[in-house]
Design goal:
Length: 246
């Protein structure tokens, strides 16, 4: 039997340990390579997209759409009453209240609101009984209109109008550089088309769409003479039209 010295045994152990360490290093190296390959194989990239399109909307809405002065007569038992004068701006004229027998004391004019998202041109066309002579008749009748900002209406206490505005206006709704709304004083109604905001006869998109500057009021004034001929109800139809560049 061959006997190994202690020195030989130690040498064998050292060689075995070196071989084991070398094998371990090689295996770890291979393991790292395989692991990196697996990690790379699991990588995935996906792309998500979000889209949104804002469309142009041109729209105006009559938030107060009818004015009914009702039925009545001039109270001629009062010698001073030669006519009844009333308007949606202030109701029966001061000092003339007793002359307007049974007529409705209307205090809300047409309220037009830009309910789209584009500035627009705005006009109104009257059809039907559009003159004082046909709407009322008699001696010196009046049938007139005027335009004011909704914000101006609020400042003069026209809550019956402005409570219908989606958002209470705080500034002028017509941004025309030459003074805002046309017909800011009472103007005689006619069977015609009236450009309300901007220069007459041109295309200018001045009627705003912003919530705090997008509404206007058309007030109506009538004067009914004491000799107005009785008859069936007369109707004037007002059509508001808007156009935008969008």
């Amino acid at each position: 039997m061959t006997k190994f010295s202690n020195a030989a045994i130690v040498s064998f152990l050292v060689i075995a340990l070196v071989i084991t360490l070398a094998s371990l290093v090689m295996n770890m190296s291979q393991l790292d390579y395989v692991q990196s390959m697996i990690t790379g194989a699991a990588t995935n990239t996906s792309v998500g997209t979000a889209t949104l399109t804002v469309t142009s909307a041109t729209a105006v809405t009559l938030q107060v759409s009818s004015i009914a002065f009702g039925s009545g007569f001039v109270n001629t038992t009062n010698a001073a009453c030669t006519y009844c004068r009333t308007s949606t701006e202030s109701g029966h004229a001061s000092g003339n209240e007793s002359c307007c027998s049974r007529f409705n004391n209307v205090t809300a004019g047409f309220l037009v609101e830009n309910t789209g998202n584009e500035n627009v041109t705005l006009n109104v066309t009257c059809s039907g009984s559009c003159t004082a002579a046909t709407f009322i008749n008699g001696t010196s009748p009046l049938f007139q209109f005027k335009i004011v900002n909704s914000s101006d209406g609020a400042s003069t206490g026209k809550t019956s109008n402005n409570s219908r505005d989606s958002t209470t206006d705080t500034t002028s709704s017509c941004s025309s550089g030459d003074g805002g709304w046309n017909y800011s004083s009472y103007t005689t109604m006619a069977a015609s088309t009236f450009d309300l905001c901007g220069t007459n006869g041109s295309t200018e998109y001045y009627f705003g769409a912003q919530p705090t500057r997008n509404a206007m009021i058309m007030d109506i004034l009538v004067q009914i003479p004491s000799d107005a001929i009785t008859g069936s109800a007369k109707t004037a139809t007002l059509t508001f039209a808007a156009a935008s560049s969008g």
